Here is the input.
Amino acid sequence: MEARLRDLLARAGAAPGPVVVLTGAGISAASGIPTFRGPEGYWRIGSVNYRPEHLATRSAFERMPESVWAWYLYRRGVCLAAVPNAAHRALVELERARGERFVLVTQNVDGLHLRAGNTPARTLQVHGNLHFARCFGACGGPLPLPAELGAGWPRDRELDPATAAALRCARCGGWLRPHVLWFDECYDEANYRFDSALGSLGGAALLLVVGTAGATNLPSQLVTAAAARNVPLVVQNLEPSPFTATAARARDGVVVLGEAADEVPRIVAALLA
Here is the structure.
């Protein structure tokens, strides 16, 4: 580990403020979860291939809820079959050591951070969690989905009547929807902890960014704000990205290239040394 990174982590580890960790798809890659923006994300409905940007939308759900749910149940099956990796486990260790001086902001909807042992109170799931659903109307939620809804769901399977019935709201009889932020929706505090995530940088000792390139709005705001406020910034990613460029320009910024499952445990160990 280079001396500059080791020094920055030593100072952050001793500081009274929170360590804020921002994670993206790269942390789950070693667990076998694809990004779904590549070939795995396409979904055929009739003769049309839909991209995630077109399928993961409120407008698509309004038109074809059963087909959208079939895609999400397939995605959920992939995530249920995955297990947390060394990077997830290291962040659990970091939370246990720092307690309230730890905040995890994750873009991932796979639920692996919580399964690894990070607590819901300290984990801000800013894009939601596909293991939960809420009423498409206004009845409330989110509620956990039963494990059998999605476990082993094959790629080409459509909804059967029993599954479709299980995805109905018990109060109003309307559709439940996946508890995820869709491309044509906006962040909010109630469902996606928008204000809490932005506020987490107040007095922060460090922003550690893991496995995300900066393609979505809220993470981009966090990294930009950290650099502007001179919050120490460590960006770990498999390859260069807009976020690594920001860290390279920052006064207290360091870039760590490599696999998250290899690099995050080393970073956490240095923070806790």
